């Protein structure tokens, strides 16, 4: 292959990596038997957290920082898109012993 063609291919690869954004992920967190699992989750800004309440009573995912307060009715799920980086500790307002941490990278 000619050097000019290799340069064109290399440029195309670079441009594609810039134009195509990284795909956001969805992380599932289970609330069952008054336990949050996993208790620590790593994610990135733009990712979605889906809390799934498998218990027969309501829970919340309430950030100590005030960043979110998600209501989880019994046997239902709810989602939240992460908007900023940092470590976010959260808990259930109804069951304060249910605690977890989100580590959100930029």
From TrEMBL:
Gene3D superfamilies: Cupredoxins - blue copper proteins. Residues 1-24 form the signal peptide. Keywords: Signal. SUPFAM superfamilies: Cupredoxins. CDD domains: Amicyanin. InterPro entries: Amicyanin (IPR035668), Cupredoxin (IPR008972), EfeO_Cupredoxin (IPR028096), ET_Amicyanin (IPR052721). It holds the Pfam family Cupredoxin_1. Residues 8-102 form the EfeO-type cupredoxin-like domain. This is Cupredoxin family copper-binding protein. It comes from Bradyrhizobium barranii.
């Amino acid at each position: 292959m000619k050097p000019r063609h290799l340069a064109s291919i290399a440029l195309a690869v670079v441009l594609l990596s810039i134009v195509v954004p990284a795909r956001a992920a969805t992380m599932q967190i289970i609330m069952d038997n008054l336990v949050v699992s996993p208790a620590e989750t790593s994610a990135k800004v733009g990712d979605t957290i889906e809390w799934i309440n498998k218990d027969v009573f309501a829970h919340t995912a309430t950030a100590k920082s005030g960043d979110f307060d998600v209501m989880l009715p019994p046997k239902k799920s709810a989602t939240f898109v992460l908007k900023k980086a940092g470590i976010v500790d959260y808990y259930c307002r109804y069951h304060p012993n249910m605690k977890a941490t989100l580590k959100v990278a930029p």
